[in-house]
Amino acid sequence: xxxxxxxxxxxxxxxxxxxxxxxxxxxxxxxxxxxxxxxxxxxxxxxxxxxxxxxxxxxxxxxxxxxxxxxxxxxxxxxxxxxxxxxxxxxxxxxxxxxxxxxxxxxxxxxxxxxxxxxxxxxxxxxxxxxxxxxxxxxxxxxxxxxxxxxxxxxxxxxxxxxxxxxxxxxxxxxxxxxxxxxxxxxxxxxxxxxxxxxxxxxxxxxxxxxxxxxxxxxxxxxxxxxxxxxxxxxxx
Length: 237
Ligand SMILES: Cc1cc2nc3c(=O)[nH]c(=O)nc-3n(C[C@H](O)[C@H](O)[C@H](O)COP(=O)(O)OP(=O)(O)OC[C@H]3O[C@@H](n4cnc5c(N)ncnc54)[C@H](O)[C@@H]3O)c2cc1C
Fold this sequence. Notes:
Blueprint: E1 2-7, E2 10-15, E3 18-24, E4 37-44, E5 47-54, E6 64-70, H1 75-81, E7 88-95, E8 106-112, H2 117-129, E9 134-141, H3 150-159, E10 163-169, E11 181-182, H4 187-193, E12 201-206, H5 208-220, E13 228-232
Parallel strand pairs: 8-9, 8-12, 9-10, 10-11, 12-13
Antiparallel strand pairs: 1-7, 2-3, 3-6, 4-5, 4-7
This protein binds flavin-adenine dinucleotide.
Flavin-adenine dinucleotide (FAD) binds at residues 37, 51-54, 67-70, 72, 74-77, 114, 117, 233-237.
């Protein structure tokens, strides 16, 4: 376990409602596994406030640690949103068992919205290390503008035949000419897009309501519970 004081080094707008926050690190590579999370402390009106965040960076990203947050109207988000570069923060981690299985495994990741953060860390790691995972990602979002990391994910899939990214838009505003799927990720889309679903390990991440719904859908398909790994972002309603 490590912990250190740091400063916000960079803030990146990823979509209308999502921002990434970066902190510098001195070591060449950071001591965490893709998919893990850390505790972030900031000061709100002079008082420390702590939240968990998955790393959206990969340990292979040199010189920084990054997390990515959906900015809500709640206190912590609002404080983060107003945080200027250079503000104090305390980081402590890493924690969590939501990590990649052994190299070469067949994986299916189901996620929506901000739940992409640990999966993005894993995919960057797989690409940087040229690993042999066979991975399909079903990524649900309400609109095209809200698909965080869209270009990066699509480029990654285009450059690696064993990685496939399927975007699913729930609407209501589906753009004309949209070539991806529409609706909500559920058992029908899993059957259609992941026909070998019984041979895969599922990684499910996001707010608790999303995780619970997706686990129920997989249970309806008789996917064994020990083939499902989950990362629940408690703190979202
Ligand atoms: C393992 C893990 C990983 C996570 N990774 C991520 C991630 O990568 N990205 C991400 O965005 N989130 C992540 N989260 C969730 C994150 O820690 C926050 O809980 C979440 O982002 C909500 O923060 P917020 O700023 O919207 O709300 P907060 O201000 O923390 O509010 C949370 C809840 O408290 C209530 N509340 C807030 N203020 C008040 C008040 N004054 N009075 C009464 N009620 C109040 C709100 O209704 C809300 O339901 C993760 C959580 C876990 C457990």
